[in-house]
Amino acid sequence: xxxxxxxxxxxxxxxxxxxxxxxxxxxxxxxxxxxxxxxxxxxxxxxxxxxxxxxxxxxxxxxxxxxxxxxxxxxxxxxxxxxxxxxxxxxxxxxxxxxxxxx
Length: 103
Fold this sequence. Notes:
Shape: elongated
Order of helices and strands: HH
Number of helices: 2
Strand content: under 5%
């Protein structure tokens, strides 16, 4: 039987997922607006406006998905599996006033 996550861990994962979705949506919308703005208000010829807006949508979707994946890959693994290969594990500093074991 696998150990279950605590309520605090579940809440932290929920917050990370929502952060990933909101920041991904914002980044995707920003990328779309930046590129589509040139088609709507800029000097883009009329025959190019349709493909230009389509590519703006593709860019926005790719940016959104890339952001969500990047944020969610930071989440820790399943409980009890230890750190993942990309995690940075730092040793705990010794406590003041105590002798370290290797002295």
